[in-house]
Amino acid sequence: MRKAQSPVYSKVCKTEVVCPNDTNPMGILQGGRLVQWMDIAAAVCAQTHAAKICVTASMDTVSFTQPAHVGDIITMEAKITRAFTTSMEIKVTAWSRSVFKTRKSLISESYFTFVAIDQDGKVAAVNGVKPSSATEKSEYEAAAKRRNHKLNPHK
């Protein structure tokens, strides 16, 4: 196993264009499609960090704060917040922007948990995370609290 890595090492930026088959009859991006795109971005981030195949274990609540429409450009940023023994928390933030505008709008954000697996399909250890910025350090600390709450919801 390699030493702890900066979250920047595995950061992923994924871009999609909302096409008609991604939307409901009103031309609004389907939530499930956005979650699928976010999950892919998170998986690439986790696999880059771990240098192993990683599978989605869970995701936090996903809220859709703004709609996205046919033709909008969706940009997602996936960044690891913390690694535990075999799992990692990845924060994914998604923005929408009309091709005719420069301003983007936050449309969703969620935390995904991934588990690394080896070639035999067994859980595998992952590298640590070395946060450097104040935001990364804050996310790192908050990740431990979120994990503790997931593992001990009634405490």
What do these coordinates show?
By secondary structure, the protein is α+β, with helices and mostly antiparallel strands. The chain has a single domain (about 5-150), classed as Thiol Ester Dehydrase, Chain A (Roll), CATH 3.10.129.10. The chain contains 2 helices and 5 strands. Strands 1-3-4-5-2 form a 5-stranded antiparallel sheet. The N and C termini lie far apart (about 35 Å). The relative contact order is 0.22. The mean pLDDT is about 95.
Task: Jot down its keywords.
alpha+beta; 155 residues; Thiol Ester Dehydrase, Chain A; globular; 5 strands
| CATH class descriptor | Alpha Beta
Total count of strands:
5
Distance between the termini: 33 Å
Count of separate DSSP helical elements: 2
Helix-strand topology string: EHEEEEH
- Uncertain residue segments: none
Shape: globular
Any guess at the CATH architecture?
Roll
CATH topology: Thiol Ester Dehydrase, Chain A
Structural class given helices, strands, pairing? alpha+beta
Q: Which sequence of strands runs across the widest sheet? A: 1-3-4-5-2
What's the gyration radius in Å? Answer: 16 Å
Structurally, the number of domains stands at 1
Helix content: 10-25%
Overall average residue pLDDT: 94
Identify the CATH homologous superfamily.
Hotdog Thioesterase
Strand content: 25-35%
Major sheet:
5 strands, antiparallel
